[in-house]
Every structure is written in C-alpha cells, then in structure tokens.
Amino acid sequence: MAAERLVVVDYGAGNLRSAAKALEAAGAETVIVSGDPDVVASADRIVLPGVGAFAQCIGALRGRSGLEAALRTAVFDRGVPFLGICVGMQLLATEGHEHGVHAGLGWLPGTVTRLTPADPNLKIPHMGWNTVTQTSAHAAFPDLSGTGYFVHSYRFDPADVAQVLATSDHGGAFAAVVGAGNILGVQFHPEKSQAYGLGFLGDFLRWQP
Fold first, then answer.
1. 102 strand-pairing partners
2. Comparing C-alpha atoms, which of 165, 52, 157, 164 is closest to residue 112?
C-alpha cells in the first residue's frame, strides 16, 4: 500500500518548514510542501498554515492560479482530512475584518474580528502559552484539552457555535479549535506546542472522517 501523501500548502504565507518537521515527528509518512494545484488536488491529507494578516494570506492564496479550486477539489469533492493552522484556520471564515473586510474561503461560515480583551491590561497580540479547553466531542481527538502556543491578534467566530470544538481565553473566551465534517482548524500553533502539539497532530494523522 502506498504511503499517504500529506501536503503542506505553500502559498507564501506560512511557517512551512516548522509545520512539515512537526508533522514528520508526529508520524506522517510522506510530507510534501507544495503550492502546485495538481499536487494539492491529489493529496491524501492537507495542512494549510498561515502567518501574517488575513488580507495578505487570502490574497497570496488566491494569487496562486488554480490553488483555491484545487483545495476545494480535495476537501469537498474527495473529502480528504484538512487542517488549517492559525491564519490558515481563519481563512475558513466567510470574511475577515483585518485591514478592511475581505472574503474568506467560506468553508465554515463566520467572521474573523480583532481580539478585544475585557481587561485593557492584556496585550495584543495574544502571544505565548495558554490553556485549551475542549467544549465539544470530536471523533479524532480523545482529549483536546491541554496547553497550546498562540500568536494572534484576531479571532474566528463561527456562525454555528457547534463548530467550536475547544476554546481558550484572553480577556474573554475565543475559538481555539473549530471543525465540521472533514475540516479542522486550530488557532494555536501545534508545531510550537511541544508534546501537546505533537499529540494533536498525531491524532489528526490517524483521523479518518
């Protein structure tokens, strides 16, 4: 049986090397870093990283001819497991309100807005270790709760609260893990979250939606 081909999507806006190395450490058989639409469309599993602003990232993704269509082919037509990380998760939203209003992928209806902590002494960006608390059961993860590493100034609020699988708190609760069907997204960085992050990625690699 051929090794499963996991593709980390290269669209010029992600921490590709760290994500690929973490996936390998978590047990991925074959990790391919590529922005080639044909490679993405035929992947067995997909990870979409993201670093930077929503507008920059969605612009970079849509600037790669055929890439968005290839992602839809893999995720919606073929049903492959998908994971978005940080801004890669936020891009799943209907729209992002960072440096204007920008249309997202629209895979999980909702909006991305700026973090506004109730405590004005809490700094933005939210950066560092924070508790992740599971709020809904998911077949892929025996236990989503743990401590993840975050670096972000914006939050994703799904329209359907049932799609929030885990939360964290920075002057108010926000979605730390979201998901529906074969689609998952995490606001924290598994590749920076040491044992917890590797455990999360291992569960994702074993998941068969």
1. 96
2. 157
Is residue 191 flagged as an active site residue?
yes
Residue 110, by phi and psi: left (phi above 0), alpha (psi -120 to 50) or beta? left
Given the residues 102, 126, 152, 189, the one annotated as active site: 189
Q: Is 107 helix (H, G, I), strand (E, B) or coil?
A: coil
Q: Is the pTM of this model over 0.90?
A: yes
What's the confidence (pLDDT) of residue 2? 61
Q: Which one from 102, 126, 170, 191 is the annotated catalytic residue?
A: 191
CB 209, CB 181: distance < 8 Å: yes
Judge whether 86 counts as a catalytic residue: yes
Rounded CA-CA distance 51/63 in Å is 16
Annotated catalytic residue 57: no
Q: Given a cut of 90, is residue 207 above it in pLDDT?
A: yes
Domains recognised in the chain with CATH numbers = 5-206 (3.40.50.880)
